[in-house]
Amino acid sequence: MAVLSPETIMMLFGLKEEDVDCSGIKLHLDKVFVFKGKALLAKNSRKLAEVEEVEADNDVYHLMPGAYKIRYREIVKVPNNAIALAIPRSTLLRSGATIYTAVWDPGYEGRGEGLLTVFNSNGIDIEKGAQIAQLVFIRLDRETKFVYKGIYQRENI
After folding, report:
1. Assessment of whether the complete model's pTM goes beyond 0.85
2. Can you list the alpha helix ranges (DSSP code H) found in the chain?
3. Which of 27, 92, 132, 147 has its CA 20 to 30 A from that of 68?
4. Nearest CA to 69 among 59, 90, 57, 54?
C-alpha cells in the first residue's frame, strides 16, 4: 500500500501546486444542508433523508451543534488503481467539528459529499470556499475491474 504524493496527484489530475496539500487534494466547502427527514437503509432498498440547503450570511455559514450534509467544491475522479479517503483539516478538529466520509471507490467520479458534525457547544462559523479537508489517495496493488458503478456516480457534476 502506498499513499500518492502531492507530485503524483498533480501529475495524474493536472492540478496546480495550490490545489494540493502535503498529503492530498484540498477539499473546499461548497454547500451545507440540514437534514429535514428520516432516512431508510434496508437490505434491498434505501431512502435518503430530505435535506434543505443552509443559507450563508455574506458567504459564512453559522452552524450550531448538530449534523450537516456538506458538498465539496472539487470534482474528482478516483483512478482505477486507487481509493481515496477524505480527512478533516486539523483546524476543523481544533474548532470542535469533524467530517465523516465513506471510502471513495476506484472509478468514482463526482463532487463528493460528507457529514460535518459540529460538537462545539458554541457552534462554528465556516466561510464558503474554505478548505475543510484533504482527499488522500491510496494506491491499490494493481488496477481493479471492481470500479464504482453505484447511484452516486457523477453526482453533483
Report:
1. yes
2. 6-13, 90-94
3. 147
4. 54
